[in-house]
Amino acid sequence: MTAAAGSLEDWPMHAVDEAVRLGRMDRDEVSQRIASLPVDRRAAVFSRLTPRLQVDLAEAMTRDDLATLGAAMAPDDLADLAGLLGAEARAIFLADLDPELRACAERLIAHAAGTAGGIMTTDYAALEADATALETLDSLRRKAPEEAAMQRVLVLNEGRLVGAVPLRDVILAPDDARLGELMDAAPIHVGVGEDRETAARLVARYDLPVLPVVEDDGRLVGVITHDDAARALAAETTEDFQKTSTVLPISETIRDAGIGLLYRKRVVWLALLVFGNLFSGAGLAYFEEMILTYVSLVFFLPLLIDSSGNAGAQSATLMVRAMATGEVEISDWTRLLLRELAVAAGLGVTMALVVAPLGLWRGGGEVALVVAATMMVLVLLGSLVGMSLPFLLSRFKLDPATASGPLVTTISDGVGVLVYFTIATLVLG
Amino acid sequence: MTAAAGSLEDWPMHAVDEAVRLGRMDRDEVSQRIASLPVDRRAAVFSRLTPRLQVDLAEAMTRDDLATLGAAMAPDDLADLAGLLGAEARAIFLADLDPELRACAERLIAHAAGTAGGIMTTDYAALEADATALETLDSLRRKAPEEAAMQRVLVLNEGRLVGAVPLRDVILAPDDARLGELMDAAPIHVGVGEDRETAARLVARYDLPVLPVVEDDGRLVGVITHDDAARALAAETTEDFQKTSTVLPISETIRDAGIGLLYRKRVVWLALLVFGNLFSGAGLAYFEEMILTYVSLVFFLPLLIDSSGNAGAQSATLMVRAMATGEVEISDWTRLLLRELAVAAGLGVTMALVVAPLGLWRGGGEVALVVAATMMVLVLLGSLVGMSLPFLLSRFKLDPATASGPLVTTISDGVGVLVYFTIATLVLG
C-alpha cells in the first residue's frame, strides 16, 4: 500500500489521516486538495479514500490526471480503483497505463473481490533456490517491493512456489548461503480462488507478514500482506456483527451507506421474522379462554419470552463467534451441549427464583408457580436452541452466523407461548 | 513470538497446529509430548497453548524443566506465563532465569494485561541517529530480534524515541546513509499505559508492522508487533460480540470456560433485564380492561414488540460496530439520526403493510388499523432508541457496546406496550 517511490513518512500528516479528513470535506474542496498534492502523496492518500469517494473523484478527473494518478499507485490499489469504475471508464483508464503496470492490474482485476486474488498484490519478492543471500539483497534493492511484501522472500522453481525465507534470515545468513538451504520448504500458502476470509485467518493463525497466493498448478501469482489481511478480516467481522442483528451484509462503509441500501438490508429479516411470530400469535389465539380467565398471565408474557430469547441469543452469539475464529468445531458439539445444559439449568433456576416473588405479588401462589416453572423451561429451551442452531446450520453447509439473536428469539417465542399456557392449564385450569 | 534461535520452519508441522492438536489431547499425553520436543520447538509450541493449559503444564513440571523452558521462550511469552502463575511459583520461576532475561520479563509483567505494556515485547531493534545503514545491518545481525520486531528500526536519543526507519529503507539505502536522514521523525507510537485496543487499532489504521511503546518521558520500553496487535484486536472483538448479546466479557477461550464462569457472565444481564421488563408488565396490568374486551389484541403482542426490538437491535449493532472501528464519531450523530429517521420510516411503513392483512384476518378492520399504526410507531421508536443509545452511552463515557440488542428490546418493550394499548384505546375504546 505504499507509493512506488518516496516515503510516506516524509509528511507531517499520515496519508491515512489526510484521507479520513478529506472524507468529511466538501467534494469540490477534496478534488482541489487532491490535485494540489505531489503525485506520490496524491496516490497514497487517494488509495485510502472510501470506494465511493474514489469513484466520484476519478469520474471528475480529466483523462490525463487519472492516468498520472494511476501510474503512481500500487498495483493492488490500482486494481481496486479500476474495479470500481464503469466498464468504459475502466477500459480507458487501463489503456493509459504503461504495459507492465496494466498487465499487473488486469491480472488482479480478474479476481472476485471476496477471494484471496481480490486482496493480493503482485508486488512481491521472489527468486530461485540457488540465489545467494547477497544476490537476494541486491535483487531486493533493484526491485524494491513494498515494505510488507518484502518480509518474506519467496522461492520459485519455474514459477512454482517451493519455499519461503524470512527477510530476517536473509540478513542474518552469510553472503553465500543459498535460499534453498535457508527456506521453509512447505510454506503456508493459499489458492487464488479461496475465500478472502480463509486467507485472512491463515495470516492471523500463523502470524504471517506475507501469505503467498498460488494458482492450481502451484504457480505464484501474488501475495497478501498482513495489513491487507487485517483489513479484510475487519470487514468480514463487521459483516458478522451485521448478521448477528439480522442485517444483510452491507458492502459500503456505514457513514456512506444510503437510505435505500440500509432499508433493503434491514427489511428482509424484519419481514421474515413476522411470519415466525405468527406461531406465537396462533398459540395465544388457541389459549384465548385461559387468557380471559387468568388475565394476569399476560402481564408476564413479555418478560418470559424476552428472557428466553436473551438466553438463547447469549448462547448463539458465543457459539457463532467461536466457530468463526476457528476455536470451536462441529466435533465439539456434544461436549459443549452438555456444558450448556448445566449452565442453562443454573440460569433457569436463578431466573425462576427472581420471577417467583413477582408472580406471587401480581397473581398469587399458583400463578407464581406457573411463571417460575415456565421461566425455567424457557431459559433452558432458549439456551439449547441458541447453542444448537449454529452447529445445525454449519452441518447443512449454511452460514452459522445466520443464527442471530432475533431468529433464536422468534423460534423460542413460538415454543414459549405453548409451554407457558400448557403449564398454566395444568396448574390452574 | 519466534524462538530465540532456530527456525520454526524447520518443522513439518507448524507450532500453532501442534499446539491446537495438543489442546485436544489428554493432559498426561500433552506433558509427555511437550517434554519430548527439542527445547526451542518446545518453547514455540508451549507459547501457543491456551493459558489454562500452560498453567496446568507449568505446575506439573519440575523446577529445572520449567527453568529450561523459560530460558528458550521469547520475553513476551515468558512474561505472559509468569503472569499466569501463582505468586510463589512466579518468584521461583523468575529467580531461575538469567538476570538479563529476568529483567526483561519483570519489566513486562509490571504492566496490566489490558494495556499496551501488556502486549508488547522487549525484543526490538533500536539505534542512535548517527548510525549508518551498514552499522545498522551489522547490529541487527548481532542482536537478531524476532522477525516481526525487526521490520522497523527505532531511532533513539538518550533512550528516547525520536524516529523510525523501515527495514526496507535500511536495505535500500547506501551503506553510509545515516538513520537520522532516513527516519520518519514523528513516528506513530503509544504510551505504555494506554488501552491495548487503542494500540491495536493504531496498528490496524496505519498498517504498522511494529508499534513502538514509550513511557511518559518518551523513553522507548518495547514494541507491539502486528501479529500480537491482531491477536489483541481479535480478543477485543470477541468481547464486543459477547456484549452485543449481554454476556459479560469472558477472559478464557470458550472451549475452556467452565460452567461456573459462563453462568456468572450470563446471569447478570438476564436478571437485570427482568426488572426492565416489569414496565411492560405494569403497562399490561394498567390496560387489563382493554385486554379482556379485545383479547385478539394479545395475539399481536409478541409480534409487535419483537419487531420493535429487532429494528432497534439492527440500529444499535450497526452503530456500536462503526463506533468501535472508529468509522463513526459522536459528531456524526445528527446526520446519522436524520438518515435513521428516513430508513426507520420506510421500514415502519413496510412492516405496517405486512401486518395489516394479519390484523384484518384475526380481528377485523379496526384491529388491523391499531396493529398497523402501532407497528409503524414501534419500528420507528425502536430504531431511534437503538441508534441513539450507543451515542448517549459514549457521551457519558460509558462503553457504547452496552447498547445490546436485548437492552434496546427491553426498553422498547416497555414503551411498546404503552403505545399499543393507547392507540387501541383511541381507536377501539
From TrEMBL, chains A, B:
GO terms for cellular component: plasma membrane. This is Magnesium transporter MgtE. NCBIfam families: mgtE. InterPro entries: CBS_dom (IPR000644), CBS_dom_sf (IPR046342), Mg_transptr_MgtE_intracell_dom (IPR006668), MgtE_N_sf (IPR038076), MgtE_transporter (IPR006669), SLC41_membr_dom (IPR006667), SLC41_membr_dom_sf (IPR036739). The gene is mgtE. Residues 120-182, 183-239 form the CBS domain. Acts as a magnesium transporter. It is found in: Cell membrane; Membrane. Signal peptide: none annotated.
